[in-house]
Design a protein that fits this description.
With 118 residues, the chain is α+β, with helices and mostly antiparallel strands. The structure holds zinc ion.
Length: 118
């Protein structure tokens, strides 16, 4: 006793996704979803704040995107920024689906979507 020359290693868990590319994509999807949790969304170079909706991406994964379906230049989430500002996109505000999605992601820490005050 006292002689521990062999260090046992913990058994590596079997990963459900052996494809490293998928693992990377899934990691990105989780990270992006976390970034936009309880946040609205702004597309780069735009003053418009959109609601967030998860949309199909690749390999069965989803990514946050403007709830109104507006496209954005670039294929990555780097073009999209989470913001705590209120939604001011008319399409998002007018879209019941978008509002439902926004409400579903609202855990009570955000005020309800305000309508534009004229
Ligand atoms: Zn929008």
């Amino acid at each position: 006793m006292g002689h521990a020359g062999v260090v046992t290693t913990e058994p590596l868990p079997l990963l459900p996704h052996p494809d490293p590319l998928y693992a990377g994509l899934a990691s990105v999807a989780r990270q992006e979803a976390g970034r936009f949790a309880e946040r609205n969304l702004r597309v780069r170079r735009s003053a418009v704040v959109h609601a967030v909706r998860m949309v199909p991406w690749v390999a069965g994964l989803t990514l946050p995107a403007p709830a109104c379906g507006q496209g954005w230049s670039g294929a990555g989430g780097g073009e999209l920024h989470p913001v705590a500002e209120s939604v001011n996109c008319g399409h998002c505000l007018a879209s019941a689906q978008a509002r439902a999605a926004a409400a579903a992601g609202d855990l009570g820490s955000q005020p309800p979507l305000p309508f534009p005050a004229s």
